[in-house]
Write a structure and sequence with these properties.
The protein has about 290 residues and is α+β, with helices and mostly antiparallel strands. The chain has helices at about 1-15, 20-55, 60-95, 105-115, 135, 145-160, 185-190, 190-210, and strands at about 120-125, 130, 165-175, 215-220, 240-250. Helix 4 (about 105-115) runs antiparallel to helix 6 (about 145-160) and helix 6 (about 145-160) packs across helix 8.
């Protein structure tokens, strides 16, 4: 596993000045490496626990072997952490020199987040607004609270402005690893996948009602599967979040209004020729005279 993580970081380190799409790829690699790093730390913690258990049992032969394995793992995690720190520094430098958003839009989003501390934060590396779910929704609910709704209205004002009009809005929900147990909640949101997606849709609905065109908005949910911090027994509130990314539109916008019906010219029918007849038919008005 360690070799794969280090290869990931080496690939990141080889990237120089990059375009928007490459920047997105770099950030995805970065988050993947962080997740793998947490897995490795968890495995080392389990190894330490095994060594502690064997120490109390007196099985020193196995303990010696595990101690050697742990020493090697510590060395490897130190190397990994050094590479990860280097990658973080490169990303910081990348964001400072060539962020994903224009400076004015970046400033507007940062100022908005600053007016809603705790509820909203802004990551200028990713062009991403993050909403803390615990302050945005009630427990187990996808209903957006009044304060969060007001903040989203302010965000919509920015998104509808001339600077942001060429950016797509991607709304992504996340949860921690606490399973849904309340029957009433489970009836509406059977799993964390559902809850994360439903919360993203609720945020989308507010932005849509505030005038952000649906053609610019995408929604998704990852449940508990993309944590930004380790989940423990009671979950982790940092992982309960909704992220709103601004990325350049990949294709021209298409209006969602129905297209006008084309005008079709219909030729006047040619007059029927006069036909002489000696008998009146049922449809001939003369027969009723």
């Amino acid at each position: 596993m360690i070799q794969g993580i280090l290869a990931c970081l080496v690939a990141m380190g080889s990237v120089g000045c990059i375009a928007q799409g490459q920047h997105d790829d770099l950030m995805r690699q970065y988050h993947t490496c962080e997740e793998q790093n947490e897995v490795l730390r968890s495995e080392i913690a389990e190894a330490r626990a095994r060594i502690q258990a064997l120490s109390t049992s007196g099985d020193h032969g196995s303990d010696a072997q595990l101690s050697a394995d742990l020493a090697q793992a510590r060395s490897q995690i130190d190397s990994l952490q050094s590479a990860l720190d280097s990658a973080k520094q490169q990303i910081r430098e990348l964001a400072a020199g060539e962020g994903p958003l224009p400076a004015q839009l970046d400033s507007q989003l940062a100022a908005l987040a600053a007016t809603h501390p705790g509820l909203m934060s802004y990551d200028d590396r990713l062009g991403m607004i993050k909403l803390a779910s615990d302050l945005t929704f009630d427990l187990g609910s996808d209903r957006v609270g009044p304060k969060a709704a007001d903040s989203l209205q302010s965000l919509a004002d920015i998104l509808n402005g001339p600077i942001a009009r060429d950016y797509e809005v991607r709304v992504v929900g996340h949860t921690d690893n606490v399973r849904i147990a309340n029957p009433a909640t489970k009836a509406k949101h059977p799993t964390n996948w559902h809850l994360s997606a439903h919360r993203a849709i609720s945020v989308k609905d507010i932005l849509s009602k505030a005038g952000v065109a649906n053609v610019r908005i995408g929604v998704g949910g990852h449940g508990e599967h993309r944590p930004i911090q380790p989940n423990r027994g009671g979950g982790n509130r940092a992982n309960r979040r909704v992220e709103i990314f601004l990325v350049p539109l990949q294709s021209p916008q298409v209006s969602s209004a129905p297209a006008p019906e084309p005008e079709i010219e219909v030729a006047e029918p040619a007059p029927e020729p006069d036909v002489a007849t000696d008998e009146a038919t049922e449809e001939d008005p003369a027969s009723f005279k």
